[in-house]
Amino acid sequence: MAQSNFNLQQIFSTFNIKETNAAASTGSNWFGREGEVKTSFSPVDGKEIAKVYLATEADYNKLIEKAQEAFQEWRLWPAPRRGEVVRQYSEALRKFKEPLGQLVSYEMGKSYQEGLGEVQEMIDICDFAVGLSRQLHGLTMHSERSKHRMYEQYHPLGVVGIISAFNFPVAVWSWNTALAWVCGDTTIWKPSEKTPLTALACQHILEEVFRKNEVPEGVSCVVMGDYRIGELMSNDKRVPLVSATGSTRMGKKVGAAVGARLGKALLELGGNNAMIISKDADLKLAIIGAVFGAVGTAGQRCTSTRRLIIHEDIYDTVKQKLKDAYKQLSIGNPLDPSNHVGPLIDKEAVEMYKNTLQKVEKEGGKVLVEGGALEGAGYESGCYVKPAVYEVEKHFEVVQQETFAPVLYLLKYSDINEAIAIQNGVPQGLSSAIMTNNLRESELFLSHAGSDCGIANVNIGTSGAEIGGAFGGEKETGGGRESGSDAWKVYMRRQTNTINYGEDLPLAQGIKFNI
Ligand code: UN1
Questions:
Q1: Is the domain of 401 the same as that of 483?
Q2: Degrees (nearest 5) of the Cα angle 261, 203, 482?
């Protein structure tokens, strides 16, 4: 059992985590011991893990100045040389994969396997970024004027602000930083105040690599804080891009503040992801995909499956299979590999979960698998809940909302167009899936008349995206794209260049201007 190998003190010494940590780091220097102190508790056993200072406005300003200063130098490094630093970071992550995976699991509450998976995502995006560091391509175009050359290039942008959520405390930061660094940007990270220790650990792993490579101090900054730091960042003209992951409520505030100063915002917000299960589905795949999507990470992924839209002919069969599958779930300490479901992040999340159950019942939802908070031995932290399943109607208000917990809704359909309309009929647009072996249905689902989400899968669940594709969604999910494909472009500024190598000055659009 992995749990017996878990030694918190050892992990702390590996990552140099002390009883009370500082508030801010420029990459080689931790400072800021004037702000409020925040205590971090593990949702696994409710124990206090450590105390961390929150940054003051003065700490924040000091960091930004360092990040700006570092940018002046970092942007001049050849991109492949920056890539080499990221390559070494990825090697270091491989070395620290197990203790970091354990810390993620203990601080955030996801299973150890998922903790390791998260570190793997960090490694993968670093590897992707290393290749990218030699491929920051622009296009060349044919000019309409004779003896003119036209092309575009991408230049480093500046300081990138990163606001990340507790649920993927390290991977999402890496999606942003690995790209930003090879693009020549410097980064300032506000991790979730619910998961500060994993941030300390990441910065610690990084420090050695950066020192060895003489990376300027300030390329990777960390600032501990709550929404107030997020506000400073969003309103700060010195931060040309703010990348924020979290709730739609938070994203609307960040988007409005960044928009008001005409900065760039990359928003990756709430999802309300559905899986359509067609009568032509392979039910073995469908059930595993649905259950993992709904209860994995205790339903706290933005890609978690929240709705199953099931064809009427197989509705009762799927219902029975789900009921049987849910019976086999064991809930408990996520460091024990025999458990499938760990705790929610904190007691506040448990309250939100309970409110949702009440709302569904009030609106007339029928219980298929009963939920509820767990108490007693093994559940002392007060953060463990039972995954719940309800049969609902599409007009229920609660079905329109994202609850960050393992609550799954079942809906029935008779026609594929109706199923797609139900799938699209929510404010969010992150991830979606169809389970079918019917080519016509799957193509329709992927067509412009199909899913309106940023991610649309066939015979795969809604969660567990690979880093190689662009990650993000439409509508209230915020429209941003992180991670793979050409998501790197948002971390750079684009410039179009036209060069005249002739002896005349012909004007574009055929305009004559004789003087
Ligand atoms: C998130 O929940 O914010 O696709 C990110 C997935 C993971 C990332 C989720 N690769 O489920």
A1: no
A2: 50
**pLDDT value at residue 28:** 87
Q: Which helix (H) or strand (E) holds 363?
A: helix 347-363
Write the single-letter amino acid at 295: V
Query: Within a 10 A sphere around the Cβ of 141, how many other Cβ atoms?
Result: 12
Give a yes or no: residue 425 inside a domain. Answer: yes
CA distance 352 to 347: 9
State whether 443 and 388 are in the same domain: yes
Do residue 189 and residue 324 come from a single domain? no
147 CB neighbour count, 10 Å cutoff: 12
Question: 263-302 burial string, b = 16+ CB within 10 Å, else e?
Answer: bbbbbbbbbbbbbbbbbbbeeeebbebbbbbbbbbbbbbb
Q: Is 202 among the residues known to form the active site? A: no
The verdict on the CB of residue 168 being under 6 Å from ligand 1 is yes
Q: What is the pTM of this model?
A: 0.97
Strands 241-245 and 159-163: parallel
- Cβ of 301 below 6 Å from ligand 1: yes
Comparing C-alpha atoms, which of 156, 66, 222 is closest to residue 488? 156
Neighbours of 402 (CB within 10 A): 23
The closest residue, in CA terms, to atom 3 on ligand 1 is 302
Domain that holds residue 222: 20-269+478-495
Calculate the CA dihedral of residues 180, 183, 184, 189 and round it to 10 degrees.
Answer: 0
Mean local confidence (pLDDT), 370-380: 97
Identity of the residue numbered 452: D
The CA distances from residue 479 to 122, 177, 482, 493, 499, in Å, are: 22, 19, 10, 19, 35
Show the tokens assigned to 439.
């080519």
Q: Going by CA atoms, what residue is nearest to atom 6 of ligand 1?
A: 464
Q: Convert the pLDDT of each residue in 89-131 to its tens digit.
A: 999 999 999 999 999 999 999 999 999 999 999 999 999 999 9
What's the 424 CA to ligand 1 centre distance in angstroms?
A: 20
Q: How many domains does the chain have?
A: 2
The question of whether 268 is a catalytic residue gets the answer: yes
**How confident is the model over 250-274, as a mean pLDDT?**
98
Please say whether the beta carbons of 122 and 478 come within 8 A.
Answer: no
Which is catalytic among the residues 126, 302, 383, 453? 302
How many Cβ atoms are within 10 Å of 261's Cβ, its own excluded? 12
Q: Where are the alpha helices (DSSP H) in 235-346?
A: 248-260, 283-295, 315-327
Residue 311, in any domain of the structure:
yes
Adjacent-strand bridge partners of 264: 241
Contacts of 472 (CB under 8 A, 6+ apart): 266, 267, 268, 430, 454, 478, 479, 480, 481, 482, 487
Q: What is the CATH number of the domain that holds 175?
A: 3.40.605.10
378 and 280 inside one domain: yes
The enclosing domain of 396 has a CATH number of 3.40.309.10
487 and 452 in a single domain? The answer is no
Chain centroid to CA 75: how far?
A: 26
Q: Is residue 308 part of a domain?
A: yes
